[in-house]
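REQUEST ID: PR-0412
SUBMITTED BY: lab tech R.K.
PRIORITY: routine
TASK: structure prediction, single protein chain
INPUT:
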Amino acid sequence: MKDQLATLAERSRFDEIIDVRTPAEYALDHLPGAINAPVLSDEERIVVGTLYKQNPFEATRVGAAMVARNLAHHLDTLFADRPHTWRPMVYCWRGGKRSGSMTAWMNLIGWRARQLAGGYKAYRQWVLEQLNEVPTRLQFVLLTGYTGCGKTRLLETLAAQGAQIVDLEGLACHRGSILGAWPDTVQPTQKAFDSRLVATLAGMDAARPVFIEAESKRVGLLHLPETLMQAMRAGRVVEVQADTESRIAYLCRDYAHLFVQPARFKNQLTRLTALHGKQTIEHWHALIEQSEMQLLFTDLVTRHYDPAYQRNNPIKHQPVSHTLHVDPTGNLEDAAKTLLAAV
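STATUS: complete
OUTPUT:
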């Protein structure tokens, strides 16, 4: 029914957003803040979908029974403490039967539930539109510099002093290099990363600068939208510098977790064999076995990271507007204040 529909623009008016898709669908991406209350499990959706190809009526009957049982479970558990004034927004893939069923029952109970028109598909289209539009309105200040100069720490310090930042590596759960995977953390899906990025950019004041680390097109397995890359290329560039000794000390501290799983660490470095040769990789493996952290990172910096930065810096042809020398292992508050005053 039309009077039970709500638009994406109205989502902030609701007390809660309910995603009734399967756990697998929810894990791929979902509206920010939405909770998962599936009316069909992953297995049940497969059963209904397979049966539908053979007998649509029987699939609908079987699916309705499954949905009814799952709805009853959610009403007895997840939603048992919701007050009578509760106003949820409910969505599924396209705003069809799954979300319609839950919305109808909630309204029969007395809650003022509404179904998201177009479902997740409408939200995903909105995300793509935002990724095409929002970056073009923002003034980016790019932090560039060699690996280990503390750009991420500087971003965090800037944020603590009230600056607007976009932490791409934080959103992507990856540092962006061959050793950049976060310990015990899986990167989000591309769609979930897009949602995180849109949520971050949407809160930015276009009249103020937005600080962001210069990244290549990919951060781990995830791709940055082309509109963001273009907006970054149009931004001002701040080159962050640090002494080599300080950088190595910072890397030894920040990447110490790699030595906890030496076999995995070796496998990661083995992927660089074509670039550096078997003999160099074997030398690095030996340093891992000997727990020679400082020697290893000194070698990685001089042989791999610095040459790679010189070759692949995505903004190497852009003019540098400011240079900032920091100690990545120390307090960066003064450096952040200097930068904020300069831009």
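NOTES: The longest strand covers residues 139-144.
REVIEWED BY: pending
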